[in-house]
Amino acid sequence: MYVRRVKNETLEFGHRGWLLDESFIFYDKKYDSLWVQATGRCIDGRFKGEQLPTLPVTHTTWGEWRALHPQTLVLAKPSYLIEKYRHDGYEQTYRVRGTEFGLAVFAADRQKLYPLEELRNLPLVQETIGDQSVLVVFHESSRTAVAFDPTIDGNRMEFELVEVTDTDVLIRDAHRSVVWSGLTGRAISGDEPKPQLRQYRTTQFVVSNWPKHFPDSPVFGTP
Questions:
Q1: Are 78 and 16 part of one and the same domain?
Q2: Which of 17, 41, 47, 201 fits 54 for a cystine, CB–CB 3.0-4.6 Å?
Q3: pLDDT tens digits for 97-152?
Q4: Whether 46 contacts 33, CB under 8 Å
Q5: Roughly how many angstroms between the first and final C-alpha of the chain, as a whole number?
Q6: Bridge partners of 54?
């Protein structure tokens, strides 16, 4: 998900079905500049070389999201489209092609890909990307992966797994024994004010396409 404001202008985008290294190319409707969907970078036109800022994103099921965020409002679809969007129209294509997805984590000026298959049986990963501390949490049954900065008030937190539930991954602060929701990054126990971990900018990314767009960035689980 990108911020569509560039140099004090709010742009509107469209796409014509063009691809570059298996990534859509989209254009801004005012200047016809061309942008790579996978990276958010402009490759031609008025804004060539500019980078669209990204926003933190959680890719999950509606049932999982609603369990964690019950007050969420959703823009209703027209009744004649509801059935069409109950399922991913590309799911069969992904299955036939053997497409695998990963969580792309952007920490400062570095990035790293965490293939979801590599996270199986690993609900908690704690490491660094460059000099940035990273906490990756994976809920296997809903295939929900998120990444947080585990730093609170300048101190790096160390976590341990408590329990994987139907809707969350519960983790414990190893020093204060406070229990946290691993999928929201919120402390959920203790009497003191409940701190919130900062979520890193992430997106789901096709594993085989990662080296085409980020050739110098590592992939979790590979040498």
A1: no
A2: 201
A3: 888 999 999 998 899 999 999 999 999 999 999 999 999 999 999 999 999 999 98
A4: yes
A5: 30
A6: 2
| Distance, CA of 124 to CA of 131 (rounded, Å) | 19
| 52 in any annotated domain | no
218 located within any domain: no
pTM above 0.85, yes or no: yes
- Nearest in space to 124 (alpha carbons), one of 81, 79, 171: 171
CA 203 to chain CA centroid, Å, is: 3
Residue whose C-alpha is closest to residue 159's, from 133, 193, 129, 120: 133
Domain that holds residue 15: 5-44
CA–CA distance, 64 with 176 (Å, rounded to integer):
28
Over 90: is that where the pLDDT of 96 sits? Answer: no
- The total of structural domains in the chain comes to 2
In a shared domain, residues 174 and 133: yes
5, 33, 41, 177 from 50: Cα distances, Å: 11, 10, 6, 44
